[in-house]
Amino acid sequence: MKSQKTGTAAKAPNKAERRGFLRNATVSTAAVAAMAASGFPKPSLAQGLKKWRMGTTWPKNFPGLGTGGNTLAKFIGDASAGKLTVEVYGGGEIVPGFETMDAVANGTLEMGHGAPYYWKGKVPAAEFIASMPFGMNVMEQNAWIQFGGGQELADKVYRQLGCKFFTSGNTGVQAGGWFNKEINSFEDYQGLKMHIPGLGGEVVKAAGGNVVSLRGGEIPPALQSGAIDATKWVGPYNDLAFGLYKSARFYYYPGWQEPATLLDNFINIKAWEGLDSEQKAIITTANAYTNLFVLNEFVSNNNAALNTLRKDHGVILKKFPDPVLNGLGALAGQVLRELAAQDPLSQEVMDSILKFRAPAINYAAFSEQAFYNARSLPFKYVR
Amino acid sequence: MKSQKTGTAAKAPNKAERRGFLRNATVSTAAVAAMAASGFPKPSLAQGLKKWRMGTTWPKNFPGLGTGGNTLAKFIGDASAGKLTVEVYGGGEIVPGFETMDAVANGTLEMGHGAPYYWKGKVPAAEFIASMPFGMNVMEQNAWIQFGGGQELADKVYRQLGCKFFTSGNTGVQAGGWFNKEINSFEDYQGLKMHIPGLGGEVVKAAGGNVVSLRGGEIPPALQSGAIDATKWVGPYNDLAFGLYKSARFYYYPGWQEPATLLDNFINIKAWEGLDSEQKAIITTANAYTNLFVLNEFVSNNNAALNTLRKDHGVILKKFPDPVLNGLGALAGQVLRELAAQDPLSQEVMDSILKFRAPAINYAAFSEQAFYNARSLPFKYVR
After folding, report:
1. What CATH number should be reported for the domain holding residue A209?
2. Contact, A347 vs B287, CB < 8 A?
């Protein structure tokens, strides 16, 4: 989910589009200022109708992600009987994907759909909200947002960006990535050339890896030439569409680096505050619908795509060995603590997550984790 | 979640209320007919305002379940700016909890909130929609409903009940139950006296257990006197409130019998069809909000309650041994296949679930399950 182009996105996205998915780039404000001055039509207020525009960080209709923004816009329009309509623009259509936050903050657009870690250059704490290596899974993250103080903290972070925050989708746990070198011991990370952005990349770096930052389209040739040994992408659904099985031999799991990646809907704070309570309730529930819809789409399509990767493309699945995961887990904690210590708001977010995560781990061992493990026993269930 | 009274429900619920939670009872229509004739005020249509009434199978404000109905009603009212308001009634307030479906079907109430397995006496397939022993967890169940054909099948089942169906909450995986006898081998189920209703009870029966059906309030004394050796209830949040730790020594996991229990919102089909597309969108998104809200409440409170049970009440957690789970899993498949074979619609639902479940198991092993297991390794993450 870090670089934009995949097999199904099709039709050679331009450079700005391809960059839209990369979370490490910095966001320039020049283009936004240019756009703001360029005379795009302003929202119509005729007949009390609000016509809003949503920018997204991904190309329009991008599988699993772009479709989330479409779903959100559709239900806002339907539930308001057209009194509040939202037109969706893909990354690059009004502003480049990466500049969506600036465009929303300055009112060029009323809302955006993306992922919190795209905004870490502006507010580092945003990255901790998106996903933390060895942090919470999606069930825990949703519960933390609603009942663990997460919504209030995310609103505080997004307030600094000039926006109101909503959770608006989730990928669930991502895949570990595509490797042409086997990872048999923790030492195998020494010198490993890997495309892995964000906090996961910081951990790989700390483990001795050589983290390489590439655009989406550069990844397959880099894997084929040996310029990189491995890459992280999203999960089976997007990875199959991108065709990464053609360039790498091993598909590693689990995606310890992003155990649940939250998507955000951010709304210009003045536009939000100008809504009546009816419209606020509509946006709140439409985001909940979208949050579940996106996750359901990922779960459903990942199930099928993993099957296809194994059966039709002979992909070899490999679990990171436990000693490797144990080493990465310890390192992740250390890296996160050091990063959080540099920024009080990041520290506040991380402390809140750690407080929620501790009992959640014990409860998972008693509930979901134990059930998954029980269901994997060799008994025959179906005829 | 089968019997109604818990510690926090308080104030001695009457007999009808206490029975409302029991899912094995049959639903009589006598009281509903009486209510329909008794002159409760009919919905007001003045000024184009719709005033609906929701009956619930649980007591008003019951933790995790009753609060789901409240949340649903609140967001329908808010998002419609009061043009469609829903007044919530607990089980026993207008009709006994169990008779909510009849009251909605005959138009005494416009909608209800409960769980599908309460209606199995009317349409057996409803029980398969609620939860299947060793079936799908909540992420999979939600994805099946939205993308696996589940919504269409549930609508078909509820159409036979005269209603439109919505998913409106989920408990996640429940606990295995409270035991005063240890389960060390599959043979320990021989003669085990256990309160465990529904499909899980059928499996325990097939394993040689003696399944006893009790009302909620009867369970603690029965455990204390040895009239039963074990009981299933919900999970840490509700079980702590009910005080079951005072009557049983061991708290077993995982809850193989209900890996995700879906809550339903059912709407009189004519009332539903009389809505405009705006109101339909509002109810659809309010249910999605409620679905997540209920799960989030369970996750959040279960985390904390398990901690309290262990630390403050010295509860001993025990995992069912793998050979026991393996035996129960095989038996569950057999019991479910036999039950489904007796009813074409149950067979259709079960076939659809099995088709979704097979690749989901492989994907879980690559994703959520593998992540949970990685996160449980002994590394030090927090200071």
Report:
1. 3.40.190.10
2. no
